[in-house]
Structure formats: C-alpha cells, structure tokens
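> call design_seq(struct)
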C-alpha cells in the first residue's frame, strides 16, 4: 500500500512536466498598414476615415428608430441565433466531459449472494470417500456437512480507478475541447453580425420599394392629368387620336409598375418578421404606406487592417479551429505512449449481516496497470499524420479567411466610391430632365410641340428617378456590407 501511494505521488509530481505535442501559438498573418480604398468621395457621400475603429453598433449611425427596434428584436428572437446559443452549451458540456476523463472514478457496490459449494460431489469426483478414510472421521463428516449447507454472502464496497495523464493526452483533449467551445462562441458572433446586416439590408429594401412606389404614384397622378389634357385637346381639335392613345398607354404602363413594388414591400415585411422570430404576417400593419431610406452617416470610421483579426468573428473562429487542431496533434501523439492506470477496491464482506461492519470483515486490493501499444497495424502513426495534416489545413483556412476579410473591406470601400460617383451623376441627370419636362409640358400646353416629344422626355425622366432611387438603395446596402466586413455588432453579446 505504501508503495502504491509512493507511485501515485510520483506520478502526480510528473504530470505538469510532460505534455506531448506542439503548443499553440496564435498566427500572425501579415496585413497592410492602411486600406487602399480610403479616400475622399464626392459629397454628400459618407467619407471613410482611419481616425478610429468602426462602430460596434453601426446600425445606430443611420438614426432610424425603426431599424434600431428591428435589430434589437432580431438579436432577441431570431431562431438561428437561439440554435447557435445551444451549440455553445453543447460545446461547453464537451469541455466538462473531456475534463472528467482525467479525474479518478469511484463506484459504490452492494451485493448479496446465496451459494452452495457442492463439496461432497467434488470429493467424490476426486475419488475421496466419505464412508472410509480420513474423510469418514466424525470431525470431517461434521465439517463437510456444514460446508454442504447453503450460505449467504453480504458485501459492501467501493471501486476506484484513475488513468494517470502522464503524457498529456487528457490535457490536450481538454485544450481541444476548450478551443472548440471558443469556436462555437465565435460562430454565434459571426451569425449575429450576418443577422444584423441582413435585417438592415431587408429594411432598406422595403423603404426603397416604398420610395419607388411613391415615384410611380406621383408619375401616375401627373400622367392622368396629361391624359385628361390630351383628351380635352383632342375634343377641341388641337390633338390627334394618336396623342390620346399614347397618353393612355403611358398611364397604363405606369400603373403596371405598382404590383411588383407592392410584392417587394410585402416580401420584405415577411422576411423581417421571420428574422425577428415571428410569423410572416405579424408586421403587416407596421412601416406605413410611405417611407424613405434613412440618411447615411457623414463619416465611416474603418480603422486599420491590423485590428481586423480581433474584430472579425470568422477570423477568431478560424483561429480557434486551428487551436483545436493543434491540440489534437498532442492527443494522437500521446496515443503512442504507455497508458498508466491505478485501480483499487475496498469493502466489507461477511456471512452474517451482524458482523458485516466489523473491522475484521474488511478487504482491499490495489492494482497498478501499464498498457504499452506494440503493434496496431500503423493506425497510431496514421492518426498522428492525419492530425498534422488537419492542423496544416486549418492554418491555410485561417490565412484564407484573413485574406477574404481584407478583400471584403477593400471591395466595400470601392463600392462606396462607385456608388457616390453614380449617384452624383444621376442627381444631375434627374434635375436636368425635370427642368426639361416642365419646359416641354408648357410648350405642349401652348400647342408648340406634339405629345410624342413630351412622352419621350417623360420616359427618360421616370427612368432616371428610378435609377437614382435604386442607386441610393445600393449605396445603403453597400455601406451595410462594409460595416459587416469591418466586424461590428457582436462585441456586447
């Protein structure tokens, strides 16, 4: 017993000193000092700057209470996000299970057995007669008779075992499980960032569709007046039948644009309802009939590339996956070394319950065990090689994730530049077209030109206004993509 205790103490002293496999070091991917796309944009577009890091609650920069409420509701009620929380719980339970492998196990047992030895039959099978010879003496007969009677055995005991983690297999398993738990948290954070961006983009789509619908309604009202004017001129002989038909055709063409806008508005409401965890029709009474895109912030802080790896949840997730794969190498290498375990039992055993708890009824055993792998058909070496290959793949995926993140930011900055230039040009076009339409309508009212000339310019103006509204929607959604690429929106989760 003392020797076993000495071995136990020695093993415990050696545990912290031996842990096979590589120790994880956070990767350091080279990144540029500044984003190449940071430059002054045409006013009044949002101006990117590196003065500070991107805001965490970026949706509040639009100063739209409706958008704020939707994002908060999605953070509370989205079903995918709730599923991600459960996956975090599962990962943390796995950590507890991994830690339990390195702890001693203790089991309690109680048993009752009724036995009959069948001693007379055993003696007879060995050629020992109870009628003659030594077994025939009265004392022997009395002993045999007593042993032939059935008897009870009562037993209470404890069994303990401990697999000593001498080479760090369990500790590496716990390290891998902890890393996987971190990966689950970062996966949730990444989902949260994507959810916030999707809510904002869907909301902007709804508001832009309301704007386009209003443009169509304004054009329909104006076109109805023109159609009535053309009909009146025709009745007084100042316009031909083709002018009346063209005016009516333009009116019905504008009216045909309304159903697609209504459908987009309804689909956006339904999508927002599902994103916040409600039934599709639950938001039908919300948002009103009219709406506009919220104004964009004047400035967009983007920070510097060196902080992107700490802000982006997908990069943090890739780092955690690489950590888990690195720890798994140590688990597979530890499989090449001996397993050392210590097992023991202690209990009480007697034929009579009255004497069961007597000290003389106790028993114990201690059994150290060493298991050394000799031949496994190359399975253990293959496991080590597989772990190393998986860690190398995880390292490549980490680098790919970092490069992809940098690309998304640069693409977002380029998109803002292109959007600003396009909107500036379209605003000039719309202003010029509207002024020209006013002049042409006045000329048509005085009979100077035909309606066909007015119609051509009207179509051009309507198209320009629609293009401007769509370009402003693209600018808003591109700004959301940039905020998402900068990795904001999870820091308080």
């Amino acid at each position: 017993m003392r020797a076993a205790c000495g071995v136990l103490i020695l093993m415990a002293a050696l545990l912290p000193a031996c842990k096979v496999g590589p120790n994880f070091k956070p990767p350091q991917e080279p990144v540029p000092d500044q984003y190449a796309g940071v430059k002054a944009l045409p006013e009044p577009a949002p101006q990117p700057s590196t003065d500070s890091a991107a805001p965490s609650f970026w949706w509040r920069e639009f100063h739209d209470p409706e958008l704020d409420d939707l994002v908060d509701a999605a953070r509370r009620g989205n079903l995918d996000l709730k599923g991600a929380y459960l996956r975090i719980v599962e990962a943390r339970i796995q950590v507890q299970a991994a830690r339990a492998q390195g702890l001693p196990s203790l089991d309690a047992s109680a048993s009752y057995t009724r036995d009959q030895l069948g001693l007379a039959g055993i003696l007879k099978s060995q050629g020992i007669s109870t009628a003659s010879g030594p077994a025939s003496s009265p004392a022997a007969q009395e002993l045999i008779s007593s042993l032939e009677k059935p008897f009870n055995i009562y037993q209470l005991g404890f069994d303990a075992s401990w697999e000593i983690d001498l080479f760090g297999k369990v500790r590496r398993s716990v390290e891998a499980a902890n890393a996987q738990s971190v990966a689950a948290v970062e996966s949730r954070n990444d989902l949260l960032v994507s959810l916030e961006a999707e809510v904002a983009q869907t909301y902007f789509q709804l508001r832009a569709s309301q704007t386009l619908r209003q443009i169509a309604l304004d054009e329909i009202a104006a076109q109805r007046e023109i159609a009535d004017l053309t009909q009146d001129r025709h009745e007084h002989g100042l316009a031909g039948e083709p002018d009346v038909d063209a005016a009516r055709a333009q009116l019905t063409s504008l009216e045909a644009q309304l159903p697609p806008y209504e459908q987009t508005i309804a689909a956006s409401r339904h999508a927002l309802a599902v994103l916040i965890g409600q039934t599709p029709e639950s938001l039908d009474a919300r948002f009103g009939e009219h709406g506009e895109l919220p104004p964009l912030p004047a400035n967009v802080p983007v920070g510097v590339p060196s902080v992107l790896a700490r802000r982006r949840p997908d990069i943090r997730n890739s780092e955690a996956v690489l950590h888990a794969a690195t720890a798994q190498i140590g688990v597979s290498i530890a499989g090449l070394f001996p397993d050392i375990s210590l097992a023991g039992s202690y209990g009480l055993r007697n034929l009579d319950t009255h004497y069961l708890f007597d000290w003389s009824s106790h028993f114990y055993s201690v059994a150290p065990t060493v298991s050394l792998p000799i031949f496994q058909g190359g399975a253990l070496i293959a496991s080590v090689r597989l772990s190393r290959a998986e860690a190398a793949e995880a390292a490549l995926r980490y680098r790919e994730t970092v490069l992809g993140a940098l690309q998304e930011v640069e693409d977002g900055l380029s998109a803002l530049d292109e959007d600003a230039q396009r909107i500036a040009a379209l605003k000039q076009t719309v202003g010029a077209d509207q002024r020209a339409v006013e002049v042409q309508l006045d000329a048509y009212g005085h009979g100077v030109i035909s309606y066909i000339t007015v119609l051509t310019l009207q179509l051009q103006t309507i198209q320009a206004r629609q293009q401007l509204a769509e370009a402003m929607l693209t600018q808003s959604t591109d700004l959301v993509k940039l905020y998402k690429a900068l990795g904001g929106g999870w820091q308080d989760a």
